[in-house]
C-alpha cells in the first residue's frame, strides 16, 4: 500500500520559512492597522477603488466640507453623506456630540461603520431603508460617482428625498448647468482638492448661504 501523502508535493523547508515570514509580516501589517494607532475613520483607512470611480478628497478639503456640514446642520443636526465617504470619515474623526451622520455608499467595505452605513446604488435612488424618513436630514452632501447627467439626476432624487432643504453637491465643473437644473444649486468659490489630481476640474455647489464662498 502506498503511503497516502506520497504524491502530495512537499514544500522545501526554505520555501516554507519564506512563506511563514510573509504571513507573519502580513499579520503584523494588519495588526498595526487594528492597533490603537490606526484610526478606522481616517481618510485612506479604506483605499480608493478606481473601478468604483472612487477618489478621496485631500485631508484639507474633507475637513473644510465636514466643518461646513456641521455648521449648516446646526446643533443636533443630521447629516447624510452620499458617495462622499471621506467627508463622513472626517465628521466621525471630529467625534461631535452635536450631530449625527449617515453614509450612503455602494462600496460595502464601508459597512465596517455599522448602523450608520446604508448600502446605496444610484440606479435605484429611492431604494432606501424604511427608517430613512423623507426630509429627515438637515443637510445632504453628495458626490455622484460619475460625471453623467443620468448619474446626477438619479442621485438628485435621493438628495431631494432626504434633505430638509440644504444641499452640498461636489461634482465636475462641467456639470454646472445640470446641477442647477436638477437641484437648484450654484457653484461656490471653494475649490475641492483630491488626494490625487483628477483630470476634470472639480467644484462644490450649494443651494444656501454657505461658508464656502
Nearest-integer average pLDDT: 84
Under the CATH scheme, which class?
Alpha Beta
Distance, first to last CA:
83 Å
| Estimated structural class | alpha/beta
Report the portion of residues in β strands.
Answer: 15-25%
Short overview:
The protein is an alpha/beta fold and 213 residues long. It is built from five helices and seven strands.
How would the blueprint of this fold be written?
Layout: H1 13-34, H2 59-73, E1 77-82, H3 85-94, E2 99-105, E3 117-119, E4 137-142, H4 149-162, E5 163-172, H5 176-183, E6 186-187, E7 202-206
Parallel strand pairs: 1-2, 1-4, 2-3, 4-5
Antiparallel strand pairs: 5-7, 6-7
Helix pairs in contact: 2-3, 4-5
Subcellular location: Cytoplasm
Catalytic activity: L-lysyl-[protein] + 3 S-adenosyl-L-methionine = N(6),N(6),N(6)-trimethyl-L-lysyl-[protein] + 3 S-adenosyl-L-homocysteine + 3 H(+)
Main location: cytoplasm
Q: Could you describe the 3D structure shown?
A:
This is EFMT1 methyltransferase. By secondary structure, this protein is an alpha/beta fold. The chain has one domain (51-206): Rossmann fold (3-Layer(aba) Sandwich), CATH 3.40.50. The chain contains five helices and seven strands; from the N terminus they run H-H-E-H-E-E-E-H-E-H-E-E. The protein has helices at 13-34, 59-73, 85-94, 149-162, 176-183, and strands spanning 77-82, 99-105, 117-119, 137-142, 163-172, 186-187, 202-206. Helix 3 links the parallel strand 1 and strand 2. The longest helix has 22 residues, at 13-34.
Amino acid at each position: 500500500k502506498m503511503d497516502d501523502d506520497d504524491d502530495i508535493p512537499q514544500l522545501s523547508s526554505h520555501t516554507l520559512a519564506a512563506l511563514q515570514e510573509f504571513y507573519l509580516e502580513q499579520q503584523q501589517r494588519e495588526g498595526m492597522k487594528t492597533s490603537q494607532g490606526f484610526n478606522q475613520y481616517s481618510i485612506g483607512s479604506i483605499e480608493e477603488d478606481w473601478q468604483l470611480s472612487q477618489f478621496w478628497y485631500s485631508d484639507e478639503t474633507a475637513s473644510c466640507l465636514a466643518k461646513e456640514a456641521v455648521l449648516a446642520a446646526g446643533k443636533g443636526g443630521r447629516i447624510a453623506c452620499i458617495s462622499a465617504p471621506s467627508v463622513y470619515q472626517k465628521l466621525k474623526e471630529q467625534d461631535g456630540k452635536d450631530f449625527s451622520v449617515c453614509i450612503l455608499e455602494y462600496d460595502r467595505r464601508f459597512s465596517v461603520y455599522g448602523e450608520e452605513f446604508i448600502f446605496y446604488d444610484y440606479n435605484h435612488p429611492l431604494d432606501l431603508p424604511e427608517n430613512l424618513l423623507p426630509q429627515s436630514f438637515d443637510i445632504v452632501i453628495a458626490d455622484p460617482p460619475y460625471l453623467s447627467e443620468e448619474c446626477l439626476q438619479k442621485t438628485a432624487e435621493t438628495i431631494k428625498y432626504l434633505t430638509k432643504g440644504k444641499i452640498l453637491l461636489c461634482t465636475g465643473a462641467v456639470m454646472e448647468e445640470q446641477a442647477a437644473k436638477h437641484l437648484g444649486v450654484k457653484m461656490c468659490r471653494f475649490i475641492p482638492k483630491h488626494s490625487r489630481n483628477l483630470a476634470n476640474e472639480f467644484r462644490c455647489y450649494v443651494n444656501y448661504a454657505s461658508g464656502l464662498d
